[in-house]
């Protein structure tokens, strides 16, 4: 059989080979492309082919080589995906990917919003940078009130400051709508205070406001009792102590009965069993007037509480700074998923 015929025969053989022979890819590679394989042999013999035929025969051997390469490449893909399959151990436990958790301040905030939304309170928000009117003047703070002092307030410009409480949102809501108004306003507030385990220059509050015809102090007390029972349990009791805020008259501070069972109860309630959780009162008629609501027709109540304080009680967190450090060891403890 001359060289040309052998090339054609090998070509036909290769074309007929649709699948990798049982002997495997390496055996095929050695037989065709190995050091002593068919291709090597043919190239050797090419030397003796008469010059005028060399080009043609050489091209046919090259064609044959391409065919071999193609076969090897396609079977290689197959073989590697087969062996990858073999390497997967489906009995091994998987890697779980790390998911985030909800910040405790958000958890408490959402729960409080939820409790008040069940009795018809809507949600409202205001800006963190406030003007003097919304943060102080409309709320009846006299010009010389110490809260306006540089020591308490972060001023941003001549008339602007970081809000010191969410009561500013009350003013915005009343200015923008007529009663009946029932709204709660969560948000971040800022005070120029020394940072310690109990106080921070930045924290969160939730403000509540209810304005309608004939709203009384009894309505305020029942609303807060409902909240305390929903949030802390059916047995929870509250008491109101007289207090003072420029924007409410009368004003009160609200305590919840925490209990005096453990040493910690003694410590956090200073031996009384009662814990202060918020300020509240009947909206001062002057404030209603400032917001274009007629105090002869309408009355209402307001209340405000610090979210950090409530979260610290609920989760027994000893230091307010933990809320702002973003230490994952702390945050991971509030997983809800
Ligand atoms: N704004 C008060 C504070 O930051 C809390 C407060 C007290 C809000 C009485 C009220 C209220 O709406 O009626 O200390």
Structural write-up:
Helices cover 41% and strands 19% of the residues. The chain has 2 domains: 3-83, no CATH class; 104-334, BirA Bifunctional Protein, domain 2 (2-Layer Sandwich), CATH 3.30.930.10. α1 (3-16) packs parallel to α4, α3 (38-46) runs antiparallel to α4 (51-87) and α5 (104-117) crosses α11. It has a 7-stranded mixed β-sheet with strand order 1-4-5-9-8-7-6, with helices on both faces. By secondary structure, the protein is α+β, with helices and mostly antiparallel strands. Bound molecules: 3,4-dihydroxyphenylalanine.
Keywords for this entry:
single chain, 337 residues, BirA Bifunctional Protein, domain 2, seven-stranded mixed β-sheet, two-stranded antiparallel ribbon, 12 helices, 41% helix, binds 3,4-dihydroxyphenylalanine
> Would you identify the regions where 5 or more consecutive residues have pLDDT less than 50?
none
Number of strands: 9
Number of domains: 2
Structural class: alpha+beta
Characterize the overall form.
Answer: elongated
Give the full name of the CATH homologous superfamily of the largest domain: Bira Bifunctional Protein, Domain 2
| Series of H and E elements | HHHHHEEHEHEEHEEHEHEHH
* Number of H- or I-type helical stretches: 12
| CATH class division of the largest domain | Alpha Beta
Range of helix content: 40-55%
| Overall CATH architecture of the largest domain | 2-Layer Sandwich
Please summarize what this structure is:
The protein is an alpha+beta fold and about 325 residues long.
